[in-house]
Structures are given as C-alpha cells and as structure tokens.
Design goal:
The chain is 26% helix and 21% strand. The protein contains 4 helices and 5 strands. The N and C termini lie far apart (31 Å). Bound molecules: tetrahydrodeoxyuridine (THU). The site of tetrahydrodeoxyuridine has 14 residues, from helix 2.
Amino acid sequence: MTDMSELLEQARRAAEASYCPYSRFRVGAALRCKDGVVITGTNVENRSYGLTNCAERSAIFTAISAGRTEFEAIAVSTPDSAEAVAPCGACRQVLSEFVKADFPVVFAGRDQRVETTLGQLYPFDSLQDLKKGSGG
Ligand code: THU
C-alpha cells in the first residue's frame, strides 16, 4: 500500500462519522501533517443548508486549532459515489492559505481515484499577494 493509499483509507474511515442527513453524501478527509500525524475531518451539514462545512475544511480547521500548520498531503474519500469527487472551490482556497502549489491531493470514490496537486486544482490562487500562511 502506498502512502497515499493509506491516507485515503483514513479518509474513507473518517467519512463514516459524516453528519449528512440532508444530502446523504458522506465525505471524509485525512490531512497528513509534516510530523506524520494525520488529522481527519468530515462534512457537517445543517438544516440551514449554507452553513454546511466540508470534510476538507473540517480537517484543516481542526489541524490549525491543534497548532499544526505544516502539511504534507490530503486525501478525500466519497464512498457514496463511484466517481472521484474533487474538493470544492472554497476548500481549495482554504488549503491554499497553508500549502504550496505542489501539495499532493488525492481524491477517490468507489471506482475512481485521482492524484493531483493543489496547483493543478487551483491554478489562479486568489489574493496570493495578501497571503501570510507558512506555506507561502
Ligand atoms: N462536500 C464536502 O465535504 N467536500 C467537498 O469537497 C464537496 C462537498 C460535502 C458538502 C455536503 O455535505 C455534501 O458533500 C454534498 O454536497
């Protein structure tokens, strides 16, 4: 099992905790920090739909809240879809605060897996000039 396969498996397990009574679409994310620690997150929905937090941002915010700011890779798992589902635009922007363009991103559904980088997913990084994050 490669590094990314293991991280994906952690993301898939994280999806089991998803709170998604409205979409019934579970998402799990696993963020590997520079020191090897993996922080997971899941999507948390709300009856006021716009307040939903994606799995990726749940993981990032948890990591930052725990004092971790340096990351190696992220995996996103959507076990309820056959296709791989890419991180949404908001999550790409939030990730870009903390990591560089070559940051590895893997996402997978049941039958498809995509390995890419944040730079490929988000080539025109918004407000780059204002950036203060350590991924800088
Ligand atoms: N979702 C994520 O958690 N991450 C993404 O990158 C895409 C969408 C969640 C939000 C919502 O709970 C459900 O998937 C359906 O949109």
